[in-house]
Amino acid sequence: MSNNYVLEQQSSYESGSGNSDYPVRVYKHKRTEFRVVVCQVPGPICHLAMCIPTVCLDHKGKPHTLEHSEYLTPSLCHLPQQETMAIADLGHYKQAPLTVVFCGSEKYPYRGYIDAVSSHNLGQPLNASTYDDMTVFKYVGLSQEGAANVLPVVLDHIMHPLIQDSQFATEVYHVDQDGRQQGVVLSEMSDFAYREHAVRSLNMRQLIFPPTSTYAWECGGLPQSIESLSIDEVIDYHKEFYSYNNLTLILIGAYDECPAAIFNVLDGLDDEISAAPPPLSRPMPPMLPKWSKGRKDFLFASEKSQTGSMTFAWEGPPAEDIETRVALEMLIDYLKTDQGSPLRKRFTHRPVPIAGGIEFGLLNYIPTAIVLSFTEVPFVAYISHAAAAAATPVKRRVGAPAMTYPSPADTCGPLDLSKLHDDVNGLFASNYYRKQLVSMLTYFTEHWLSEHWQHFCSYLSKRTACISAKFADVAMSQKDQQGILYKLSRDAVIHRLSPGSASAAQPTFGSHGHLFSLRRELGQRDCAFWKALVQKWFLNERMLHIATIPDPKMGIQIEAERNLAQRSYMENINPAELKAMQTRLEKALESTKVNIPHDLLAALPPTPDIALVQMPRFTGYNFNHSTDSLLVESPFGMGRVLVVPGEVESKFQISFPLAGLSSELWPYLPLFVKLVTTQVGLVIPHTVADTVLQDSCIMSTKPSGMPLLYLNSEQVDGAMSEALTEHKAFIGDLYGHDSSGQWPIEVLTLFGSTKRKDLLRAFKLMSLKMMFGDFGVDTILKAANLLKKELMAKRGTGTSLLIDTFPWLRNPGRLDATAIAKYDPLDSSTHAMASHIGSESFGRALNLYYQISFLTTLTRSLSAAMNEDDMLATEADSMSDAITQIRVHFANCNSATGLAHIAVSKCNDGAEARDTLSTFVSEWQACSNAWRENHQVVTVPATPYELPTLISNNRRIYTPPRKRRKAVVVVPAKEPIKLSPNSRVGSRDFSAVSPPLGIHVTLASLQTSYVGIQVPLIAQRDPSDTRLVSLAKQLEKRPDTDMYALQLLCILFNRSEGLVKNAIRGRGYAYGVGIHPNNNNGNLAVYISHAGDPLKATAAFWDVMEQLRHEAGWNKAVNEFQLGAARSIYYFRAYTGFAESLISEDSNCIFRGFSGVEEFLSWMRSHVEDIKIADLRRAFLKYFMPFITKGAPSLYVVATPQFMPETGAEFLRQLNSNAYSARFKAVDMSVLDPIVTI
């Protein structure tokens, strides 16, 4: 070990797996407070992180701005899909991927050098996160050798950045020659600051923390304050906080216990470290002594005005009180997550919900704060909701007396719908929500906890086991609050900022190291302990109550004020000032060029050998449909058993083929998946009940004289909770492919994770739910409403708008790009577009706009049918029949394009692996046979369906609230489809429009603009049928060279110093830009997000393409070093993906035609290593030229704020003034809402 450091502490983190703990060692510099924390975690990944406490006392966003100014970070990924984590768990968190050109440092004064070094060392470009009280810089790579190579460059950029006016102008704030306010930080925060969760978070913190606390301010900055920020303030802020005495270096991953290479680098910097200024000690003040007693209302910008939120806050325990914090987290988790908790029953899980969701967490402030937010609280009349509730049967206890609503019992249990009107009328009274919450918490302590004690204890035990089992997956996460990096960073910050730790001689690292033991110990506490916990922290503590209310006019007003300021600026600026401003901008744009000396790049250490990177050890056993009788007459073309020694849990990923499913049923697939994952009961015919329930561990009784056995949702959910640590269902072979606009149609997959002994039982339960779940009208309606709500949350904001719009335009249909190209808003004859919408092909595309409209029609029909509306009864019956037909498909499918994939930790040989697989195949056959035994086949000719459809012998397989007509849907018999396992079907058609078509849409919810461009992509990817030509023989010709060259080229363009990102992001036109080849869906896409100037951003992209079109421009921009860096990044992404989710990635490899991960890695490395500059050039000319070729088929979507400096006609004129003959049309978003008739 280095003579400059001493081993100060030793601790560990429980692995959660029963395997060895992860050791933690803290090395302290002998003369300063600088520390190196090393946590050894097995696996290929190596984290290198630097944590610095950063405090702010204004809204100028200096911590965030400094991060951008030092590293020119492109974006703060605010985790829109993880708002609960960002707001309720982590505190105010901002993630900034460092993927643009960096400014340089005193020792390395070259823009982009830090990115080049990171990419060269089997790692991703440097990353950073800004929190309310700390900034964490992170490098992630595949070797400690690479981390040691990167460390000196990173430290020099952090401690000695070149903060110059040129970078400040583009990254933070400037006014261009047209008076438009621009800058990456400004554009980013212009969108973020007015979102609902940002408004409620900031206002909540300002009401409980004093102005001398960092938590009372917006660390990212507010737009009006960013405008007044100066570069001198940023430099002074850096001097105050950025010192080795304040910095903690954290190493997590495959490191030695005292990594010599790291300490060699630090010894070379010892003089600088020893001379560091005194350490920061700034204890945060306590919360305000007085809180507002009444409800405080705040507005947020929203295009629609239906829902807002109600938020409550309490002061939490000190940051050092780990036991109380963990106990509160366990209690909060139960109240928030358990579907039967009184909090859920009172507010969300009731016939007329008074909240759509619950966000509840202990925020890591100093001191901590407990925050509960009820989201999607309706701010509209409840007439329709009350009518729907009235149709729902009231399930009251037998003999229960009538009671006035809301009574304590009804608060947390069955609702008296006859009193519902009073409940609705008082919903927005000043203290109504507060009273209902206090009533629920009081009832919880006085009655509920005692009456449901066994369930409560069982839940805590299950959750501890679940979190423990999943810890291996999240331990290395950069963002997860349970990740080791976040926990160790909090330990460092608490030592600097907490009053309870400021006087301590040293920080305590690994404070959460024994989390699972502590959770188990707390789970043994008696009922009195938990009652006292609720009483002390919720009922006895003061409570803050705020409401965030939607204002559809706010966004318009903000944009109008911004436009007014722009006009005022241009009217008052004199010629000399205008010239000075233009000179400044020209200098700033010139500084974005990357000019790293070739000699400096050549002197870098060689890239670490990818062959030395250790992948998880595993053995795979494959079983093929054509060679193994086990899979004959099953849906599975291949079976795979993966043996991963040391794996904590066993997993299954069973993919059922969708080949042959009628396109008429495609729109129902997302709904069917939702039903499979929704809490429902089971309806099983008595004739097969014993067979299908055997070994399921579901307790049941058989009522005499009843043809059906009904198991309620609590029974089923309890059994699944016992058997499964994690489970999900999704469309496609990779989780996440079912995102809107990206739905492949090859397979439907069931995934489960559990203990080895429960593996088969877990699959049985999911199969039973899939085939025998109580998918009645009320259940379908509930699932459809939930799915619609999720899709609506994605719609109309950000890049998802672009991703969702393109499939609708791209895929042929009556309202595709060709139809819109003929649309003239000034010609009344083309207003008949609505007729095209109404007759849209039913299975045209599984994109977001179709799904929302489809679900709207579905929920309307089902709601009316439940209220005895016979006019819509036929539609309701057809919807229910469609779900049955999907089950029919799975019960009869033997197309042999599915995959049965199982991962276990131990298996002695292939025979045992085959036996394991056999039990799964047999289990599915038993379940599907049982379903078929109670249905008969009816076949007739000349119908649109492609497979035999079965109908039920007994139509009333559940009991809906009305008498259901007995309709029979019949389809023709046809031979099963036989496809090879690697045959893939995708939505690859591309409506050819010449000249290229663009649509311009406006949204009141946007404060910045978004641009998307797509061109067709048809490229060879993966091997052809290996039954005809062996993989080795195919590999000799490198058939995928073009596709891998395209992927490497996209990495080059997307890199921080890449031409495309530099041209757009580096100049401050937008803060996000990415190029994405999507071979499955047949397109190459460019997405530009948070654009302050969409016209300049688009023009900059075209300019780069034109530059690269010419040989001279290409040779200047692309070289061997960049190709090597792209290879390094590609390897990093591939290997980390496999390390984090081996079974999913392995399944994906099989669907792509490989025998597993092993073959894919060999295939991939052979191609990537063989790629040359000439291959990149060929890929560019082949795939990117359509972006700048007149008449080539391409599609554009430009989404802007509703009010812009230019008029709509003027902006459209500017869009159409392009050199590529792209014709843009202004389209109202409602045009993309088809009227679906079912």
Automatic annotation (TrEMBL):
Record-linked Pfam families: Peptidase_M16_C
Domain Peptidase M16 C-terminal: 228-347
One MF term in the entry's GO annotations: metal ion binding
InterPro entries: Metalloenz_LuxS/M16, Peptidase_M16_C
PANTHER family assigned: PEPTIDASE M16 N-TERMINAL DOMAIN-CONTAINING PROTEIN, PRESEQUENCE PROTEASE
The protein's name in its UniProt record: Peptidase M16 C-terminal domain-containing protein
